[in-house]
């Protein structure tokens, strides 16, 4: 049986991060849902960040892919590997805290390495078109303060940005599992555990 591939990005710099804790609950639940073997590719971007973009990579994005490869060759290897990893995944799982109303810089850096002309998106007369097959994207997101409220207490650049950036490469099936207000919780780990249990319960028995 073909293994289910989960690409899991952890984006907090904190080894004991609540977002990582929440994401690992979701990962375990996803694995429990299937009878197929599961392979998890974990990238701890928060503690082992990717390098900053190179001049070669930035230069390659203004060229069609054949010219980019001819000119920059092996200098595109990291982006190639990250794009292949993403393309090979059946599920993308992202664990990330809110940092200054948006996504952590390490996640933005990963996005910059994988939003790749003629590899994950194409330029057409009508604009950019995503080239990846759509797949579920699950985002475990934590915040210290009151985020994700209506009316908003803080501006939310996290969810709209991720929807736009991932949508640009063809990934539109994005679900956010939000754990806001953790700075006000006496037991943030327990709060995250309860939230995960609730999400798993709702997923097993969706509302009619
Ligand atoms: C650099 C930085 C910026 C932050 N910006 C925000 C913010 O804009 N809004 C908010 O509610 N919390 C903010 N926080 C708090 C974190 O989102 C919060 O502590 C979260 O629970 C951390 O999750 P983690 O345990 O996964 O690292 C910020 C934290 C850091 C380190």
UniProtKB/TrEMBL annotation:
The protein's enzyme class: oxidoreductase
Source taxon at top rank: Bacteria
Matching InterPro entries: Flavodoxin_fold, Flavoprotein-like_sf, FMN-dep_NADH:Q_OxRdtase_AzoR1, NADH:quinone_OxRdtase_FMN_depd
Keywords: Flavoprotein, FMN, NAD, Oxidoreductase
Binding site for FMN: 12, 142-145
UniProt-listed SUPFAM superfamilies: Flavoproteins
Residues in Flavodoxin-like fold domain copies: 6-200
UniProt cofactor(s): FMN
Presence of the UniProt keyword Transmembrane helix in the record: no
SUBUNIT field: Homodimer.
PANTHER family per UniProt: FMN-DEPENDENT NADH-AZOREDUCTASE 1 (PTHR43741), FMN-DEPENDENT NADH:QUINONE OXIDOREDUCTASE (PTHR43741:SF4)
Protein name: FMN dependent NADH:quinone oxidoreductase
Native source species: Pseudaquabacterium rugosum
Source organism phylogeny: Bacteria, Pseudomonadati, Pseudomonadota, Betaproteobacteria, Burkholderiales
